[in-house]
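sorry for the late reply, my laptop died twice this morning and i had to redo everyting from scratch. anyway the thing you sent over, i finally got around to it. pasting the sequence first so we're on the same page, its 303 residues, then the predicted structure underneath. double check i copied it right bc i was rushing
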Amino acid sequence: MSIRSTFVSTFFLRPNKILYRLFHPSPSVIRFVIHPQTWFWGNLLSPFGVRLENSHYGKIPGVIFTPKKNTQQNIIFVYLHGGGYCIGSSRTTHRIGLSNLAKTTSCIIHSIDYRLAPTHPYPAALDDATEAWKAIVADNPESQIILSGDSAGGGLSLALMMRLRDEGFRLPDAAVLFSPWADLTCSSKTYKTLAKADPMIHPAIPNHCAGHYVPDSVDRNSPYVSPIFGDFKGLPRTLILVGGKEILLDDSRIVGEHAVAAGADFEVDIWPNMFHDWWLFGPFIPETKQCLLKVADWIHSRE
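ok and here's the structure:
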C-alpha cells in the first residue's frame, strides 16, 4: 500500500467507520452528508477530457461519461454504482471514479441511477437495471457492451446477468466488477476475520443495508438478491477486482470459485493491501490508476 493510501485509510476511512459504529445513521442522513461533499470533490478533481451528459434509459435516469479523445467506437460500458443499495449516484459518489474509468479505457460509460432503498426496496434496483439495460442494448446493437459495477452495484450486475440469461435476453459481452457485494446474508468468514483490518466497512453496515433493501417477505438466499447462491453457467467472461483488507473479500472469492466450477470464465484479482473501492479515490492514491490500467488491458486483450 502506498503512503497516500495509508494516509487515506488511517485519517479518513477509519474515523468514518468509528462514527458509523457509534451513531448508526440512517441512509437519508448519510446521503445528506456524503452526496454534497462528493459532488463538490467530483467537480473539483475529476479528470479533464471527459464530458458528462444527463440521460434516460427508458424511464431510468443516468449519466453518460464520454472521453473526448481516442474514444472506442465499438465498446461501451453499462455501469451500476455501489452504496449498499441505499446511497450513491453517478454525479456524486462515483463521478471521479467513472470519469477516470472512461478516460483510462477510452470507452463511453452509461451509468444508471436506479432507485434507492429504503424508499424503493427490492426488486426496484433490479427492475431499473433491467429496463435500462434493454434500452441501451436497443440503442447500441452493434457495440460490445461491458457490464460493470462496484460493491452493491457489482452484486446487482451479477443478479442482472442471471436474470437476463434466465429470461432469454442479450447478455453482456464481458463484465468488470469491483468488490461485488454478492451475499446479502452477510455470512462469509471475512466479516469476522477482516473486521479489524478493514478500515472502511464496519460489519454492521452491510447488515443494515440488506435490511433496508430486502423486504421481510423475500428470501435473502434468492439468486436475484444474493447472486453468490445462483447458477453461474453461461455467464460472460468476468474480471473481479477486490481488496485483500475488506470484509467483502470472501464474496469475490466464493463467486469466482462457483463460477469456475460452473464452467464460466471468471478471474478474481486480489489486491492484498487495499481497502474497499480504492479505485474510486482518483488522484488521492496511485493504486487507482494501476487498477484502471489493469481493467483497460483486460478489456482490450480480447479485441
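The chain has a mean pLDDT of 96.
thats about all i looked at so far, will dig more tmrw
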